[in-house]
Structure formats: C-alpha cells, structure tokens
C-alpha cells in the first residue's frame, strides 16, 4: 500500500451493500469486497485505496484515530460515539429514526395535543444501545432517566422487566409490533454519513473532497441532493 493511499472504513452489516454500491458508482473497483465476510482488509491498488471492514459502532473510532481516513457510518452511531471526526456528507441511505417505546399495556396518559405525557417516566429505566442520546433527549425535557446499556434485542428488555421503556432506532416498525411495543416519543431521523479524520481531510483534501463531490453528484443524479463540505455535528 502506497503512503498516500486512502483507507476507507466500511461497516459490516446492514449498510455494507449500499456503501459498496456507492463507492463502485464513484469509480472504485471494489466488486470483490465483502465476498468473504472473514476478510477484513481489501487493497485496491489501481484506485490508490484500501477498504477495511469494521463493526458499525467502531467506525468513528477507526476514523478519529486515523486508522482510516474516511468512513461510512449511521448518524445514530455518530451521535452516540461522539468522536472527534469531520462529517462530510449525508448519504441518504440506511434511513431509521430514534424513538422511545413502551409496552402497549403500560402506556403513559395522553396530553390534549394527542402526544404522550412523559413526565411520569422521570427516574425510570430506559434500555438502549444509545445511552448518550437517551440522556440528551430526556435531559432536554428536564428529566432524568437511568439508561441500561444493551448491545441488541432491545425490545426484549421491557417485556421481562429489565426496563420500563426503550430508546432505539426503528425503520419498518416490525420489531416494535412483534413485541407489542408502542412508540411514545419520536426523537430524530438518522441516515448514513460520510466522515473523515480531521488531519487526513486537511492533508489529503483534494483526494477526499474529490470523492465527496463525485458521491454528491451521484446522489443528486438519484434525485437526492446532499450538501457537500464539512458540517457541524
Ligand atoms: N432496521 C434498520 N433499518 C435501517 N437502518 C438500520 C436499521 N437498523 C440499523 N440501521 C442502520 O444501520 C447501522 C448498522 O446497523 P447494523 O444492524 O448493521 O449493525 P449493529 O448491529 O447496529 O452494529 P454493531 O454490531 O456494531 O452493534 C445502524 O447504525 C443504523 O444507522
Ligand atoms: O423497525 P424495524 O425495521 O423492525 O427495525 C428496527 C430494529 O432494527 C435494529 O435492530 P437490529 O436488526 O440491528 O438488531 P439488534 O437488535 O441486534 O441491534 C433496531 O435496534 C430494531 O431492533
């Protein structure tokens, strides 16, 4: 691998195929990447690049420390990890929403405007993969909750008495429905973002911004204009 080759961190799992498709459309010869799920690094010598495959939650860490120059990551993970990276583009795929949900048999009362009254949930336990985002959401409402950090199958927690509610991402709503949970508070939407190591972005500006521009043009062609350049998180 040459010294100024670009290292690109991609998340294994749900976002991998769309991330690879976008890179391929942007001209990278990465057809073979991800074929063997145990292989974690892929050199693309003709493109002066290397792709590394990471756990989705680890992407911001690889990028912050400069082990990768750029990375693809969900905004949900980016907010929770709170790493010092530059957010360059909203890639508009991997759409999901943060929300709070509770068992259908123990819903809070409704307010006059139809929304749920969350005030009775003060000091209750919230099971989540996103304790930081959960605390931010409730503290903005002047409330305190006890986050219980889990790593998956969050919807199970209120069903077995581990927590009164969950704070999680929802996409189709199928998992909530199957576990008889009802959304009581929407929080915010999240899509996949292109992020960069701050030093790499400065040192390798033309290369990274060139790729960014190509991807932004592709997204515009697909009818989804996304703003280029660094954004505040
Ligand atoms: N049901 C979903 N629909 C759409 N996008 C989703 C959905 N679930 C997760 N995502 C998006 O995909 C990203 C990766 O999710 P994925 O399920 O592949 O990994 P993960 O299990 O959350 O990660 P890790 O293994 O590091 O805990 C999430 O951070 C989110 O941005
Ligand atoms: O609204 P839906 O389309 O049903 O998707 C929502 C589910 O997807 C995510 O879980 P994931 O599949 O990543 O599994 P996990 O519980 O192991 O994190 C999320 O945590 C929900 O459980």
Automatic annotation (TrEMBL):
<keyword id="KW-0963">Cytoplasm</keyword>
<dbReference type="GO" id="GO:0003879">
    <property type="term" value="F:ATP phosphoribosyltransferase activity"/>
</dbReference>
<dbReference type="GO" id="GO:0005524">
    <property type="term" value="F:ATP binding"/>
</dbReference>
<keyword id="KW-0547">Nucleotide-binding</keyword>
<dbReference type="InterPro" id="IPR024893">
    <property type="entry name" value="ATP_PRibTrfase_HisG_short"/>
</dbReference>
<dbReference type="InterPro" id="IPR013820">
    <property type="entry name" value="ATP_PRibTrfase_cat"/>
</dbReference>
<dbReference type="Pfam" id="PF01634">
    <property type="entry name" value="HisG"/>
</dbReference>
<dbReference type="InterPro" id="IPR001348">
    <property type="entry name" value="ATP_PRibTrfase_HisG"/>
</dbReference>
<protein>
    <recommendedName>
        <fullName>ATP phosphoribosyltransferase</fullName>
        <ecNumber>2.4.2.17</ecNumber>
    </recommendedName>
</protein>
<comment type="pathway">
    <text>Amino-acid biosynthesis; L-histidine biosynthesis; L-histidine from 5-phospho-alpha-D-ribose 1-diphosphate: step 1/9.</text>
</comment>
<keyword id="KW-0328">Glycosyltransferase</keyword>
<comment type="function">
    <text>Catalyzes the condensation of ATP and 5-phosphoribose 1-diphosphate to form N'-(5'-phosphoribosyl)-ATP (PR-ATP). Has a crucial role in the pathway because the rate of histidine biosynthesis seems to be controlled primarily by regulation of HisG enzymatic activity.</text>
</comment>
<keyword id="KW-0067">ATP-binding</keyword>
<keyword id="KW-0368">Histidine biosynthesis</keyword>
<comment type="subunit">
    <text>Heteromultimer composed of HisG and HisZ subunits.</text>
</comment>
<comment type="similarity">
    <text>Belongs to the ATP phosphoribosyltransferase family. Short subfamily.</text>
</comment>
<dbReference type="GO" id="GO:0005737">
    <property type="term" value="C:cytoplasm"/>
</dbReference>
<dbReference type="InterPro" id="IPR018198">
    <property type="entry name" value="ATP_PRibTrfase_CS"/>
</dbReference>
<keyword id="KW-0808">Transferase</keyword>
<feature type="domain" description="ATP phosphoribosyltransferase catalytic">
    <location>
        <begin position="55"/>
        <end position="216"/>
    </location>
</feature>
<dbReference type="GO" id="GO:0000105">
    <property type="term" value="P:L-histidine biosynthetic process"/>
</dbReference>
<keyword id="KW-0028">Amino-acid biosynthesis</keyword>
